[in-house]
């Protein structure tokens, strides 16, 4: 087998080229190839300086994911980096594309670093529950000082080539062809008579107590229980205290301490799910329809966000509103969104993007769009009316989508003469920010329409999950159940504030009551009203929440809800307590610990999720995990609720559910799928694999 690493000599310059398509992953053959090339360079009397560069779009990728979970083969990456560093003659890393993770560490093993504009340097390891493990945490601070390393490593962040030059991570910035520029740079270094300059031989960076304190405070808050970001800070601190060789050993020790943890397993699970979620067997070989223009109907909260998302992806948008004033308002919201995107560096120029937006009040303007997304009021008769109009004006072959949160997409499709072209595209608010897109597929939808929806999601840089038709689809249906568990815990003795605190301690960004205050407590009230006619008499009604609505306590927007607000900062609203006491009546009260709260909340989530999978609303457990991760703030390091359930044991969860069912058999009905898996001794993970 030929090596993916080539060694060529031109004059006095050795060029070591890594060619391991598609992403120059640092698999065993590349590591061995780099090792051998350095040996050859050392022994090569003709070559006085070496360049390492990558062929293709990247300098060097990170670890080879096909080697995950297998015993590592020598040479290991830390040794390869040190081997490069120990070369007897100067070595240049010439970086033209992303050099992230292991790729960045190889570049740091070289003596000099040249970057072509457009290159990026970074350490994304924490996103997989790890820290840099091949010297990155020890070498980077020796070049840049601790500040930039503390900015980058706990965040899993990266910098541009310009920024890399500013912070001292690279030595030279150029424009043009990487090979050409590297040759010019190498000749210059030779002419200057430079020698090897080993980063590992540079002195320890200065210890800065304030910087470490600030980083630890920030990441204790931000990481919400995730350990890798704080471990990355420990590794950088080691660089300030220890000689290089010992620092490397400490980095290794910290790296290995993370390697076998449940958090690492959760991150890996989430990482692979990102790839699996859009791979649906029924869509294999199905070509999507071309989408070159989009219509959006309704320009309120969601419509304006969806239009923004499409514009950011370069798609022209025609937005239809009820009247001129609403159309103007929608345009103003979208303009504000685009301006904010420019400020965040996500968009170059708002003005030219806005030329792709047309706002109208006449549906006829949609006659030529390839896809229309409806985001009008959540009311079946309004949706019927809109889809009848869309059916009348849209061209044959166009896709008709609804952003409904709860309504029956099959019924909406039936309002048209072309149900095969109708699908649900359930965006999350704010639609131009949130990553999740639930693609709701009625039985009547044509496969290529589903494939088109997945292709659109990719274009919008969203993570798409296929969902079946039911009240709330995957995410909101499960949410309604764990919200129900929270209300039941209030009746049984836990306070809303204890519940919020316990759920945050589990790793979610907010508890359910804080979330309610943020979204507006009128939403929950309206949902209860909508469901009231079908409510089972055994169900409970959170009468205190209804009373809060009638008091006008709608959460943040009215200054009080479960919390009272000064700005966005809330403190528990004591006025809610008597309302809760009244609702509790003489029910027996339990003394809830945070663990008890977490257990019930999560069990409710998993039990409903198992029903969702069992009924085929979600194709696999992993679809639930992805939905909760990207739409509901479930901590990534826990992998997702189904992964969490496997890790605590399905039998133990089922026992709990059966136990609670003794008091509340209506709410705690075990999911048949959960019972079946426990009976068969199988896990959700087994189900994922069976469907692969
Ligand atoms: P909204 O009330 O902010 O906006 C609705 C807009 O539709 C208004 O601007 C209204 O003028 C316009 N509109 C009403 N009838 C129309 C018609 N016949 N033709 C053209 N425009 C019309 O509502 P929001 O929150 O944007 O919700 C829209 C849809 O998105 C609903 O189905 C909702 O369930 C769904 N949704 C809402 C989410 C949220 O967080 N707000 C999240 C996901 C989905």
UniProtKB/TrEMBL annotation:
<comment type="pathway">
    <text>Lipid metabolism; fatty acid beta-oxidation.</text>
</comment>
<dbReference type="GO" id="GO:0003857">
    <property type="term" value="F:(3S)-3-hydroxyacyl-CoA dehydrogenase (NAD+) activity"/>
</dbReference>
<keyword id="KW-0456">Lyase</keyword>
<dbReference type="GO" id="GO:0006635">
    <property type="term" value="P:fatty acid beta-oxidation"/>
</dbReference>
<dbReference type="InterPro" id="IPR006108">
    <property type="entry name" value="3HC_DH_C"/>
</dbReference>
<dbReference type="InterPro" id="IPR006176">
    <property type="entry name" value="3-OHacyl-CoA_DH_NAD-bd"/>
</dbReference>
<keyword id="KW-0443">Lipid metabolism</keyword>
<comment type="similarity">
    <text>In the N-terminal section; belongs to the enoyl-CoA hydratase/isomerase family.</text>
</comment>
<dbReference type="InterPro" id="IPR029045">
    <property type="entry name" value="ClpP/crotonase-like_dom_sf"/>
</dbReference>
<keyword id="KW-0560">Oxidoreductase</keyword>
<dbReference type="InterPro" id="IPR001753">
    <property type="entry name" value="Enoyl-CoA_hydra/iso"/>
</dbReference>
<dbReference type="GO" id="GO:0070403">
    <property type="term" value="F:NAD+ binding"/>
</dbReference>
<feature type="domain" description="3-hydroxyacyl-CoA dehydrogenase NAD binding">
    <location>
        <begin position="294"/>
        <end position="467"/>
    </location>
</feature>
<dbReference type="InterPro" id="IPR018376">
    <property type="entry name" value="Enoyl-CoA_hyd/isom_CS"/>
</dbReference>
<dbReference type="GO" id="GO:0004300">
    <property type="term" value="F:enoyl-CoA hydratase activity"/>
</dbReference>
<dbReference type="Pfam" id="PF00725">
    <property type="entry name" value="3HCDH"/>
</dbReference>
<keyword id="KW-0520">NAD</keyword>
<comment type="similarity">
    <text>Belongs to the enoyl-CoA hydratase/isomerase family.</text>
</comment>
<dbReference type="Pfam" id="PF00378">
    <property type="entry name" value="ECH_1"/>
</dbReference>
<protein>
    <submittedName>
        <fullName>3-hydroxyacyl-CoA dehydrogenase</fullName>
        <ecNumber>1.1.1.35</ecNumber>
    </submittedName>
</protein>
<dbReference type="InterPro" id="IPR036291">
    <property type="entry name" value="NAD(P)-bd_dom_sf"/>
</dbReference>
<keyword id="KW-0511">Multifunctional enzyme</keyword>
<feature type="domain" description="3-hydroxyacyl-CoA dehydrogenase C-terminal">
    <location>
        <begin position="472"/>
        <end position="565"/>
    </location>
</feature>
<keyword id="KW-0413">Isomerase</keyword>
<keyword id="KW-0276">Fatty acid metabolism</keyword>
<dbReference type="InterPro" id="IPR008927">
    <property type="entry name" value="6-PGluconate_DH-like_C_sf"/>
</dbReference>
<keyword id="KW-0442">Lipid degradation</keyword>
<dbReference type="GO" id="GO:0016853">
    <property type="term" value="F:isomerase activity"/>
</dbReference>
<keyword id="KW-0576">Peroxisome</keyword>
<dbReference type="Pfam" id="PF02737">
    <property type="entry name" value="3HCDH_N"/>
</dbReference>
<feature type="domain" description="3-hydroxyacyl-CoA dehydrogenase C-terminal">
    <location>
        <begin position="597"/>
        <end position="682"/>
    </location>
</feature>
């Amino acid at each position: 087998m030929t090596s993916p690493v080539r060694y060529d000599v031109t004059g006095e310059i050795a060029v070591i080229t890594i060619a391991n398509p598609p992403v120059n992953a640092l698999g065993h053959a590349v590591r061995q190839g780099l090792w051998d090339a350095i040996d050859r360079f050392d022994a090569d009397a003709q070559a006085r300086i070496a360049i390492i560069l990558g062929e293709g779009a990247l300098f060097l990728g990170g670890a080879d994911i096909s080697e995950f979970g297998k015993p590592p083969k020598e040479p290991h990456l830390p040794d390869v980096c040190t081997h490069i560093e120990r070369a007897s003659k100067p070595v240049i890393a010439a970086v033209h594309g992303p050099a992230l993770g292991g790729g960045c560490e190889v570049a740091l093993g070289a003596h000099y670093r040249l970057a072509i504009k457009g290159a990026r340097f970074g350490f994304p390891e924490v996103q997989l529950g790890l820290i840099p493990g091949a010297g990155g945490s020890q070498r980077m601070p020796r070049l840049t000082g601790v500040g930039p390393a503390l900015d980058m490593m706990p965040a899993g962040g990266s910098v541009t080539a310009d920024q890399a030059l500013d912070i001292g991570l690279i030595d030279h910035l150029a424009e043009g062809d990487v090979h050409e520029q590297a040759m010019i740079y190498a000749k210059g270094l030779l002419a200057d008579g430079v020698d090897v300059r080993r980063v590992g031989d540079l002195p320890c960076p200065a210890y800065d107590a304030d910087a470490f304190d600030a980083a630890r405070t920030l990441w204790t808050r931000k990481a919400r229980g995730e350990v890798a970001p704080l471990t990355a800070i420990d590794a950088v601190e080691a660089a300030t205290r220890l000689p290089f060789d010992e620092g490397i050993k400490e980095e290794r020790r910290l790296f290995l301490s993370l390697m076998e943890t449940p958090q690492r397993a959760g991150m890996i699970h989430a990482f692979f799910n990102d790839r699996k979620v859009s791979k649906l067997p029924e869509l294999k070989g199905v070509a999507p329809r071309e989408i070159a223009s989009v219509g959006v109907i309704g320009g309120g909260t969601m419509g304006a966000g969806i239009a923004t998302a499409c514009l950011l992806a370069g798609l022209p948008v025609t937005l239809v509103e009820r009247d001129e004033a609403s159309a103007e308002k929608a345009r103003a919201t979208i303009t504000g969104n685009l301006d904010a995107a420019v400020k965040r560096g996500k968009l170059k120029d708002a003005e030219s993007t806005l030329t792709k937006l047309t706002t109208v009040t006449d549906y006829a303007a949609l006659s030529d769009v390839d896809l229309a997304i409806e985001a009008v009021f959540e009311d079946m008769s309004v949706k019927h009316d809109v889809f009848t109009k869309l059916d009348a004006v849209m061209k044959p072959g166009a896709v008709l989508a609804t952003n409904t949160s709860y309504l029956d997409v099959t019924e909406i499709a039936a309002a048209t003469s072309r149900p095969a072209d109708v699908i649900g595209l359930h965006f999350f608010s704010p639609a131009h920010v949130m990553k999740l897109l639930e693609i709701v597929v009625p039985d009547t939808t044509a496969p290529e329409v589903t494939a088109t929806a997945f292709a659109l999601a990719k274009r919008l840089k969203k993570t798409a999950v296929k969902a079946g038709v039911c009240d709330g689809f995957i995410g909101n249906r499960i949410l309604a159940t764990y919200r129900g568990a929270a209300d039941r815990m209030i009746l049984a003795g836990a306070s809303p504030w204890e519940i919020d605190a316990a759920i945050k301690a589990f790793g979610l960004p907010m508890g359910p009551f804080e979330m309610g205050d943020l979204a507006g407590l009128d939403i929950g009230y309206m949902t209860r009203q909508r469901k009231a006619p079908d409510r089972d008499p055994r169900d409970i009604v959170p009468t205190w929440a209804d009373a809060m609505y009638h008091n006008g306590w709608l959460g943040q927007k009215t200054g009080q809800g479960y919390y009272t607000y000064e700005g966005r900062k809330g403190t528990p609203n004591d006025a809610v307590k008597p309302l809760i006491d009244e609702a509790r009546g003489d029910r027996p009260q339990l003394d809830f610990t945070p663990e008890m709260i977490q257990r019930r909340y999560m069990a409710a989530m998993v039990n409903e999720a198992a029903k969702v999978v069992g009924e085929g609303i979600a194709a696999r457990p992993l679809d639930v995990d992805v939905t909760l991760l990207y739409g509901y703030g479930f901590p990534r390091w826990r992998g997702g609720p189904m992964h969490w359930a496997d890790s605590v044991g399905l039998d133990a969860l089922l026992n709990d559910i059966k136990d609670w069912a003794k008091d509340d058999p209506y709410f705690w009905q075990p999911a048949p799928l959960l019972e079946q898996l426990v009976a068969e001794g199988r896990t959700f993970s087994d189900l994922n694999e069976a469907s692969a």
